[in-house]
DNA sequence: CTAATAGTGTCTCTCAGACAGTATTCT
DNA sequence: AGAATACTGTCTGAGAGACACTATTAG
């Protein structure tokens, strides 16, 4: 930035949150029902305007998280997803929104917070397919968030954040299958995860299902970045043009 | 976003550009000398405030590109890098800046544009090492831009954008070496690039250096996303904690 | 026993990395 | 010829994917 000879126009700044979790082996996103115009009654991502002129963006994201979804903001790591600032995306005027992505362990049904009329988990499929319509350009933001989560799963140990503090390898596999949307071979997954240094560490053992051999339990290991990465199988993509 | 019961504070929105190119086999970033306070006389990324309240962010980025650096904005693909919005990053008040990344072919020395007192290419090493100090938090933005470029080089055919419209495989290799900051084996690089489907396509032949066998010439292929990706060799990383 | 899930061993194919060797130009 | 750069062939080791096989539980 170099120059402010002239009066620069001010804009309204908002934060939006894409909070993903796993429920019944399907990827879900947290949505609220808008209590005010515009799009009153429609589903939307939790979020809102900056409260004070000096509020930090990340702080605002955490604040909205606890206000709108009653989720313990401290335990969730928020990652900046992008800026959505097209003129006309908000009928109230020029609103530029910074989107954040969070990946959450299995959480209880959120009780509606102070701000939102309602907050609940919805399967991302329903949103991406357009079956469930969202306010503003929030469907696009969800799509970007899911794609980001897919890539992040490859290179970071964030998948363990989808599980509880203790989990089986099969549960971890279900995370990858749900987010990537493809089935994986349990045997190869088992080997791969085990030999990825620092990804998971064993703790004890428990019997799970009514049948079958009990699975060993693990917790997240010390490594945040995975090397080698978990590789997502090639998409059956036709030639992509640039 | 859900609620605007109260007056939301407005902020000033700026765009900053990280424009990378290759000169003499080294990665360079375009910097301008600030003509106004604050940080008058210091080096900074090209960029500036939104001009009208309804200006699109990408449009503003393109505008600044041509105004401040006299670069043909249309030919450069801009990629959103992130938002930098810490309170206090700009002494004039609350300024939130959206950073864009562009990767440019070898370009002529830019003539100073209308806005900037001066614009010139500087090696990124000098910036990242701190030898050359930048205004605001621009050093951080450059660092993020370089890291993004490194990752992007792995998965996309953007490396060809560093070269001219026609190039040799050795020239392409120099791009990877400069951006990644490591040497690569020419023989293996040759094979790898050749068999990555749709990455580059041959055209003719030319003699280059004063000595040696002439190199075949290529142009960018139809593929924008590379599969399999070009893999960057493992860093000699110690254990990273989360 | 069977059914069901957890976990192991092993084969094959591909690919990255190392590097010897060949091709084509210059002086 | 010799030097320099472009390009090819081949070996090796690591890892992904496929899948037969063993282990441990419930009923």
From TrEMBL, chains A, B:
Residue ranges occupied by any Nudix hydrolase domain in the UniProt entry: 10-148
Enzyme Commission no: 3.6.1.55
A Pfam family it matches: WHD_NrtR
Signal peptide (UniProt feature, chain positions): none
Molecular function terms, GO-annotated: 8-oxo-7,8-dihydrodeoxyguanosine triphosphate pyrophosphatase activity
InterPro entries assigned to the protein according to its UniProt record, in alphabetical order: NUDIX_hydrolase-like_dom_sf (IPR015797), NUDIX_hydrolase_dom (IPR000086), WH-like_DNA-bd_sf (IPR036388), WH_DNA-bd_sf (IPR036390), WHD_NrtR (IPR054105)
Keywords assigned: Hydrolase
Gene3D superfamilies named among the record's database cross-references: Nucleoside Triphosphate Pyrophosphohydrolase, Winged helix-like DNA-binding domain superfamily/Winged helix DNA-binding domain
Protein's UniProt name: 8-oxo-dGTP diphosphatase
Organism phylogeny: Bacteria, Bacillati, Actinomycetota, Actinomycetes, Streptosporangiales
């Amino acid at each position: 930035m170099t120059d402010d000879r002239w009066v620069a126009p001010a804009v309204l700044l908002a934060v939006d949150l894409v909070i993903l979790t796993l429920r019944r082996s399907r990827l879900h996103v947290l949505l609220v029902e808008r209590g005010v115009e515009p799009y009153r009654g429609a589903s939307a991502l939790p979020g809102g305007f900056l409260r004070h002129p000096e509020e930090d963006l990340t702080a605002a994201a955490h604040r909205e998280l606890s206000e709108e979804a009653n989720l313990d903001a401290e335990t969730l790591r928020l990652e900046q997803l992008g800026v959505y600032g097209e003129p006309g995306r908000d009928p109230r005027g020029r609103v530029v929104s910074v989107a954040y992505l969070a990946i959450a362990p299995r959480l209880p049904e959120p009780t509606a917070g102070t701000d939102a009329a309602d907050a609940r988990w919805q399967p991302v499929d329903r949103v991406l397919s357009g079956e469930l319509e969202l306010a503003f350009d929030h469907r696009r933001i969800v799509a970007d968030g899911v794609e980001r989560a897919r890539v992040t799963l490859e290179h970071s140990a964030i998948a363990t954040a989808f599980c509880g503090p203790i989990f089986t390898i099969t549960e971890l596999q279900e995370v990858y299958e749900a987010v990537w949307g493809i089935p994986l071979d349990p045997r190869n997954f088992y080997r791969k995860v085990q030999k990825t240094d620092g990804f998971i560490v064993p703790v004890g053992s428990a019997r799970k299902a009514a049948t079958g051999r009990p699975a060993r339990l693990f917790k997240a290991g010390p490594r945040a970045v995975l090397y080698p990465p978990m590789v997502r199988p090639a998409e059956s993509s036709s030639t992509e043009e640039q």
